[in-house]
Amino acid sequence: MYAESGREYGVTPQQGQLLCVLMARPHGMSELGAMLRLAKSSLTGLVDRTERNGLVQREPDPLDTRAVRVALTARGERVAGEFYDETCRRIEELPACLSPAERDLLAGLLGRVVLDNEVPVVFQEPDEGARAAQSH
Description:
There is one protein chain. By secondary structure, the protein is α+β, with helices and mostly antiparallel strands. Helices cover 63% and strands 12% of the residues. Strand 2 (56-61) and strand 3 form a beta hairpin. Helix 1 (2-9) crosses helix 2, helix 1 crosses helix 5 and helix 2 (13-22) crosses helix 5. The two termini are 31 Å apart.
């Protein structure tokens, strides 16, 4: 789904994931590396490429003068929102052939797989991330 949506918006699946994570709030590089499960060098390359495309920017971390946070630019916010909406639409269409009971069963099973495998939260509702950030 990321790849199909990404082609429409000119981003790679990895850039799409990065944009979705940043919709909630800016993140530090080490936090992004953990969330996206990327090595430092891979994350740096991803942020560099996404920054060159004008979608993200590095900004000083107000809590640590040695560190930077990665934030969406105005263009990045627009692309992230459109990419997110399109990807959600595509995902919602996937189980169209299933009955409501089958969809509920599938959702429950997939939820267990995600929890049991400690899948990082990458694709969440934008306001969920903002609420989580406010509670920390």
